[in-house]
Amino acid sequence: MVAHSKELFSYKTLVHAMAGSLGSMVGMSAFFPLDTVRSRLQLEESREAKNTFAVLQDLIREEGFVTLYRGIVPVLQSLCASNFVYFYTFHGLKAMHAQYTQSAGKDLMFASIAGVINVLTTTPLWVVNTRLKMSGVGHSPGHRSRPPRYSGLVDGLKRISRDEGVGALWNGTLPSLLLVVNPALQMAVYEGIKRRMAGTDLGTAGYFLVGAIAKAVATTLTYPLQLLQTKLRHGHNYRDLPPDAGMVELIVYILKKFGVAGLYKGMEAKVLQTVLTAALMFAVYEKIAHFVFKVMLSQPRV
Hints:
This protein has helices spanning 2-8, 11-43, 52-63, 72-96, 104-133, 153-163, 173-178, 181-196, 203-234, 247-258, 267-298. It is mainly α. The longest helix has 33 residues, at 11-43. The protein contains 11 helices and no strands. The two termini are 27 Å apart.
C-alpha cells in the first residue's frame, strides 16, 4: 500500500498535473471570447439567442472589443488551480492502480473522484470569476458595462465571505457535483480512444481531434446542468423568482416559461468553445508531458 501511495506523490503525477494545467490555460486563452458569449446568453434573458459570431459582433458594438476578454485573468488563475488538482488526482489514482488492467469503467471512476475533489476545493474561485466576468449583465444594449464589483480573485473571495457569508463561496456546488460527470465522461472517452489507438503516433492533430470528440460528447449530454450552475453562481435575473431560488426551482421555472429549449440557451457557443478549448488543451498537454518525460528519461541516473 505504501508503494502504491508513493505513486500519488511521484514526479510523473506532478508532470501530468502541470502539463494539464498549462494546456488548459493555453486552450482557454485562445477561445475565451466564445466562453464570454456562452455566459452572456445564459444570464441575459433579454439577449436574443443569435448564432455565436452574431453575438460576438453585438457585444463588440455595444461594449467594445475588450468586453470579450473581461475577467480572463481570474479565469486563467482558477483554471490553472482547477486543472492542476484534477489532473494530479486522476493520474495519481491511475498510477496507484497501475498493476490492474485499465478500463473505461476505472477511468470513469477515477475521473469522477478527481472531479469531486476539484469541485469541493476550487468552487470559490469559479464563483468569484463568474461574477467578475459578468459585471456588465443587466445593462441594456448600447450602454457601457459597469465596473467589476471586485478588483480581482483574492478581493472577491474576501468580499463575498465578508458580505454574504463563507457559504456563498460554494454557490452552485450541487450542480457542479452533478457536473462531475462532464469531465469524467470527457476523460473516460479520451483515455478509451487513446487505448484503442495504442501504438499509433497520433501527433498534435490526432490528439486535438480525440480531445474534441471527447468534449463534444460530454458537453452535449450535460449542458442543462452547466446552465443552472452558471445561474446559481452569478444569480439569475428572473423578477418573479426569489433570488435565492435553488436548482429545482430554477429548472421548473425555466421549463414553464421557456420550455425545454430554455435549458439549452447558449449551447452552440458552449459546445464550440469547450470543444475547441479542450481539444487544444489535450494537444498541448500531450506535447508538454511527452517532452518532459523524454527529457527525464534522457538524464543519466546518479
